[in-house]
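Hi R.,

Here's the chain you asked about this morning:
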Amino acid sequence: MAREQLIQIVSEMVAGVLGVDVEVGARVEVGDEVALLESMKMEIPVIADTPGTVTAVKVAAGDVVQEGDVLLVLAP
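And here is the predicted structure, written out as tokens:
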């Protein structure tokens, strides 16, 4: 059996983390909001584009992330 590839959800911009809507062990589906970022006074939802189970949460509310920073890790 091939090892399953982990999926990283990354920030697409420099932003502040307003909140994380999932925790380790949660199942997410395509279209689920997994986090909320803020940049230039705009709220930007982070939406899952693939289904999976959260294996790691790398950020918390109040953190500042850079473009490309890993927010969450999913297992398919």
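One quick note: The CA atoms of residues 43 and 49 lie 18 Å apart.

Cheers,
M.
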